[in-house]
Amino acid sequence: MKKIFIYLAFPCIAFGCSDVLDTIPTDRLSSEVYWKTDQDAQLAANAIYRFLEDPGTLLSRDEMSDIARATFETSDETKIEASIADPQTGLFQNTWNDLYKGIRRCNDYMANVEKITPENEANVNTYTAEVRTLRCYFYSRLVGYFGDVPLITTPIGIAESKELTRTPVSEIYDFIYNEITDAVNYLPVTASEKGRVTKGAALGILARTMLFAAGNVTGADDRATTYYQRAKDAADAIIASGAYSLLPNYKDLFNYANENSQEVVFDKQFIKDTYANAVMNNFGAVSLGNNGSMMSPTAVLVDEYETASGKKITEDSSYDPMNPYKGRDPRLSYTLFVPGDELPNGTIYDSRPGWSTTADAIGASYQVSKTGLLPRKYINAEDIGQSNRTNCGINLIIIRYAEILLTAAEARIELNTETDIALQYINQIRQRSDVNMPALSGITSQNALREAVRHERMVELALEGNRFFDIRRWKIAEAVCNKDEIEGMRYVDKETGKLVSVTTDYKKKFTARDYLWPIPYNERQLNTNLSQNNGWN
To answer: Which of 26-30, 228-232, 251-255, 487-491 comes out lowest in average pLDDT?
Structure first.
């Protein structure tokens, strides 16, 4: 075989058969055959969506806040919330890694899309606007975690990547604002396919980013007003579009029947057997056959839910400590599983130590909730009957209309303008059909209004990954997270008949440095994610 190869190759070497040696590979995509058609742009844009967070990444952020703790003691979230993480902690590296991989795909798209002579220019312009928006989303997450990060908008080589420096976060916020403000002109109100970026999704990303930016302005910087105004304008544009509304029933927001409902502004699409997630396996009760919930919600969240009369539990004489979950804001029962609740398989959840012999009882294994409480959102009966509970097809909501209303309200409160409209937006959420909490009225001071909108964000968006960023931008993480023990569910002791609380000696310790994560220890190595050229995998 070796001689045959030599004899066959010799004529080409001798006589210069360059057309054979320069043959374009047929077993892979290359720049010589790609970036020719409208479909090439579409497929390249499609490939970027995979870098949006999955449920395990997005939802577990709230474990690093006051409303939940990480169940597993060895997790990175445990190290971070205890303030014992360092630049070598894997979550820092993985977050940096994944977001910059998405950005690299975006930069590669932007550098090549102009090679196409489009048959339908409007379609290609839409795909390009989607990519520009996704790049802004990735950068908004990066600055939310790390603050100043390298702002790279074109493909770069490995040598260049090793010389990167961090761009001031204010420049990145301006980049996001300018990019999205232009990109929305090419985006549709309703996408041709569910899950694609729309005008509403782009404006929602902008509103959320500007709200975070305003809260993180420091010192004598006067840009907070500008950021709040930008957040208000973006949220107002979504509201004025009429494209979205609240789903009447809060309890149905996170089930299969209401995927792509009128409340979903932006989500990540999943399909069983094709592109699945592991939300059931990662967050469901052990008794459902899962590996245990990564997240253990705390009493801080439970206590925030008002009584049905709209009062704090400390201010309402009708509140019964012996039945602490009764007569409360209905969103409590739609957000959490507490002892006595029916699980999606029809069995009763019982985590009470001494009472329960189920796999969910506190202390039964290291996998069970440390607080006796479990998240309910995204836990659906459709994902129980299968042997592989990592094969879930439920979509992950990234931004929903309730958040847009709360952003519009909060921006007004911070700007101290149109506070009557701010209250209207808060009340729309409180008076959703199956929530029906009393409307707020007569609140006039900015501090009281601020307290009202922050309360509403906490209970409305609980365990959806927002609290982590909220307590950082409000600069309250040190105040609300520093605890020597974590309190969980309350229940009646079997022997004494008295009310007791589940507590753990696990400590949360948040310090000023935890407002922004440290850059991973091998930053320059990780920056090669911006310079790789290994295709759209």
So the answer is: 26-30
Cα separation of 299 and 524, whole Å? 42
Count, residues in the chain: 537
* This prediction's pTM: 0.91
- For 172-204, how does the pLDDT look when each residue is reduced to its tens digit (9 = 90+)? 999 999 999 999 999 999 999 999 999 999 999
pLDDT at 9 > cutoff 50: no
Q: Report CA 263 to chain centroid distance, whole Å.
A: 16
pLDDT average, residue stretch 452-471: 97
Which one-letter DSSP state was computed for residue 305? Answer: S
Buried b (16+ CB within 10 A) or exposed e, 466-492: bbbbbbbbeeebeebbebeebbbbbbe
Nearest alpha carbon to residue 111 among 157, 143, 142, 174: 157
What gap in Å lies between CA 122 and CA 116, rounded to an integer?
A: 13
The Cα 390–Cα 396 span in angstroms is: 14
CA 514 to chain CA centroid, Å, is 19
In degrees, rounded to 5, the angle at the alpha carbon of residue 470 between the alpha carbons of residues 469 and 471 is 95
- Exposure string for 377-396, b = 16+ CB within 10 A, e = fewer: bbbbeebbeeeebebbbbbb
Provide the 3-class DSSP secondary structure of residue 140.
helix
Alpha helices in 297-379 (DSSP H): 299-304, 331-335
- Helix spans in 296-399 (H): 299-304, 331-335
CA 457 – CA 143 distance, rounded (Å): 21
CA atoms of 404 and 385, how far apart (whole Å): 35
Helix (H) or strand (E) holding 472: helix 467-473
User: What are the backbone angles phi and psi of residue 10, rounded to the nearest 5°?
Assistant: -60, -45
Say how far apart CA 44 and CA 131 lie, in whole Å. 9
Q: How far apart are CA 429 and CA 488, in angstroms?
A: 27
Which letter does DSSP use for residue 271 in this model? B
Q: How many CB atoms lie within 10 A of CB 340?
A: 13
What is the pLDDT averaged over residues 31-57?
Answer: 93
pLDDT exceeds cutoff 70 at 324: yes
Cα(414)–Cα(211) distance, integer angstroms = 10
What are the DSSP calls for 50-106, one per residue? GGSPPHHHHHGGGGGSSSEEESSTTSHHHHHHTT---TT-HHHHHHHHHHHHHHHHH
User: Could you read off the pLDDT of 244-270 as tens digits, one per residue?
Assistant: 999 999 999 999 999 999 999 999 999
